Amino acid sequence: MGLQGGYKLDIVFVIDATGSMDPIMKEVKARALTMGEEIKTEMAKASRPISEMRLRVIDFGDYATEADEAIRQTDFFSMPADKQKFEDAVQGIDYDGRGGDAPENALEALYVAMMSDWTKIGLLEKGRHIIVLMTDAYPLHLQERKECVGYPADDFPPDLETLQKIWIEKDYDENNRPNPDKTTQLSASGKRLLIFAPDGKDALNHSWQPLTGWEQSTFTAVDPTKGLLDMPLDGIIAEIVRSV
After folding, report:
1. Phi-psi region of 220 (alpha: psi -120 to 50; beta: other; left: phi over 0)
2. How far apart are CA 16 and CA 53, in angstroms?
3. Where are the alpha helices (DSSP H) in the chain?
4. Which of 123, 113, 82 has its CA nearest to residue 185?
5. Interval 175-220: pLDDT, tens
6. N or C terminus: which one in the chain shows less Cβ crowding within 10 Å?
7. Angle, CA of 166, 170 and 176, to the nearest 5°
8. Tens of pLDDT along 136-176?
9. Element (H, E) at 60
10. Residue 52 CB: number of other CB atoms within 10 A?
11. Is residue 28 exposed (0-12), middle (13-18) or buried (19+ Cβ within 10 Å)?
12. What does the pLDDT read at residue 215?
């Protein structure tokens, strides 16, 4: 018996919500109401029809300046039924005056995304769990802000090696049976990580380079002096479709 139905598609957008992200944030906000349909249309063109789609947004800044508001998150929105709720959530993201020139708490936000309440993909179903991370800054080391007000150190992995292990593992086996020794509901074969971020590193070795070798992930380098000006939302949606 072959795979049945269209794709079950969960997408979590992890967005740097600081002042320097103004161009891409304006575009995301402007197209929030149509983003789900755009993805669905492009998937259909690629002969990958969608049966169920949910979108979620996590935005991040820096615990040193935003305290317990450094990472903010929404629930999943089923599309198209919840498209107005999705737009309202995206439109409500405040980024003006947040962050600074320093790296941001992107790795903690990535962890929050990984621990999402992902839809279950059955043995005879097609589906993807996709995380799309967009930033024009390097990531702070995990726990680097643990002394800052509002940083929940016990809630985050101690280091990048642990974060990678969590990415590799999953909460359900291929027959969708609970596997309590694992820590996430990410599909082993259906998970994808798309990172749009600066290449290289800064003087304190903040860098995305260690993540570029993660399995089932794609890294697209952006010019840190231009942010995501050279990577409009059309290009990001195209990468989502290619990852499916």
Report:
1. beta
2. 23
3. 22-30, 32-45, 63-66, 83-91, 106-114, 160-168, 233-243
4. 113
5. 555 555 556 789 988 999 999 999 999 999 999 999 999 999 999 9
6. N
7. 175
8. 899 999 999 999 999 999 999 999 999 998 898 765 555 55
9. strand 50-60
10. 15
11. buried
12. 93
Strand partners for 220: 196
Tokens of 197: 């971020």
For tokens 């259909």, the residue is 44
Which has the minimum average pLDDT: 121-125, 146-150, 169-173, 239-243?
169-173
Angular region, 200: left φ>0, alpha ψ -120 to 50, beta rest: left
Q: Give the count of alpha carbons within 13 A of 234, CB side only.
A: 2
Count of H-run helices and E-run strands, the chain: 7, 7
Class of the 4-243 domain?
alpha beta
DSSP state of 101: S
**Percentage of the residues of the chain whose pLDDT score is greater than 70:** 89
d(CA 105, CA 140): 5
- What is the token pair recorded at 100? 């600074």
**Residue 196: what residue type?**
F
* Contact in structure between 116 and 36 (CB atoms under 8 Å): no
Token readout for 13 is: 């957008």
pLDDT digits (tens, 9 = 90+) for 45-68: 999 999 999 999 999 999 999 999
